[in-house]
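Bumping my old thread because nobody answered last time. Still need a sequence for this structure:
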């Protein structure tokens, strides 16, 4: 039985807009789940295909459960051709078998893509690098016009205090850079987390779902790369996978695979007062902290900032580097291993340059 998406609605919610749908046929649920995406007022004007956000964001769930997916709403016919390739990639990576996917496919009918270029922006190393690198490009070369943050992805939907702090920081960073911030929110993870791994499978499709909701504004969306070309492996965002979420209205571009995390800090972030003022790398958020300072990711980033000579200038982390905590880092995941190796290589390079033992 396919997962069914029906009763798609577009409603005004206070000063914002909500795109929602009933999702049924989910394992372990008798009642439909009301999935919603919320955006600032006016940003859903000109929404091209209201079925696309649901079609893309729920595809990993359908693949993980071995179900098909049926969306009772207008979708892009171009996506149909891409799903076969996504199906083959996921089968090769994870052994998943995705059933039939269907929507009310529509062509272009003389419509054109919007001129805006968005970049997903969490305030971390990857997204700051992509923004700083691309914001000065000439028109037509991925010159960024908007930043895009999604509450409900790495900040829990119920954590309103942290969301307010993160939103304020990202908006101020955008103001410094002359780029407006679009803050979206969604309850998608409340549906997907019990079924599909966020990192390995789900989050790239989730980003695509949000971006398709903004097709009236953004014709190109940059996805800051997690890994380099040298270290890519099966992951939710990937240079092979990301472009396949594109249609003729929204083109997805993986950005930043050419640089390691240490390279991103050295090439762009170390020279940016804005990045050092608002850098946010922590996903643990222990005690509601903006950057907890004690998780593996915070410590690893502090090491690279120290080696770049800017740790004392980064206002969002303390400038103390406890080497005992560095030694206590335990590598548990493949993604963590690749970043740790990058950091170690930078340590060795710096030691050689300074003739340290």
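Sorry it took so long. Here it is:
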């Amino acid at each position: 039985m396919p997962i069914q998406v029906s009763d798609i609605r577009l409603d005004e919610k206070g000063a914002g807009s909500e795109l929602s749908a009933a999702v049924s046929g989910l394992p372990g649920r008798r009642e439909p789940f009301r999935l919603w995406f919320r955006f600032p007022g006016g940003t859903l004007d000109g929404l091209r295909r209201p079925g696309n956000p649901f079609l893309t964001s729920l595809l990993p769930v359908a693949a993980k459960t071995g179900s098909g997916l049926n969306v009772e709403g207008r979708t892009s016919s171009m996506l149909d051709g891409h799903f076969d390739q996504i199906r083959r990639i996921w089968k090769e990576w994870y052994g998943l078998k995705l059933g039939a996917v269907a929507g009310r496919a529509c062509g272009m009918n003389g419509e054109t893509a919007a001129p805006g270029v968005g970049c997903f922006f969490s305030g971390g190393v990857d997204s700051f690098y992509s923004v700083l690198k691309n914001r000065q490009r000439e028109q037509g070369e991925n010159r960024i016009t908007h930043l895009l943050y999604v509450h409900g992805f790495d900040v829990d939907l119920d954590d309103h205090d942290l969301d307010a702090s993160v939103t304020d920081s990202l908006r101020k960073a955008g103001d410094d850079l002359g780029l407006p911030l679009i803050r979206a929110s969604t309850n998608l993870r409340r549906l997907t987390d019990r079924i599909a791994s966020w990192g390995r499978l789900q989050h790239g499709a989730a980003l695509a779902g949000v971006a398709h909701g903004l097709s009236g504004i953004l014709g190109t969306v940059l996805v800051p790369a997690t890994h380099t070309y040298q270290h890519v492996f099966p992951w939710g965002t990937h240079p092979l996978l990301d472009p396949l979420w594109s249609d003729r209205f929204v083109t997805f571009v993986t950005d930043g695979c050419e640089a390691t995390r240490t390279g991103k800090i050295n090439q762009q972030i170390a020279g940016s007062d804005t990045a050092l003022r608002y850098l946010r790398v922590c996903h643990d958020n222990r005690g509601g902290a903006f950057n907890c300072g004690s998780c593996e990711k915070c410590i690893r980033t502090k090491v690279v900032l120290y080696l770049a000579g800017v740790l004392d200038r980064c206002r969002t982390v303390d400038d103390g580097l406890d080497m005992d905590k560095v030694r206590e880092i335990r590598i548990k995941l493949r993604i963590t291993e690749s970043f740790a190796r990058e950091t170690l290589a930078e340590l060795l390079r710096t030691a050689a340059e300074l003739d340290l033992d």
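The longest strand covers residues 3-13. Let me know if any region looks off to you.
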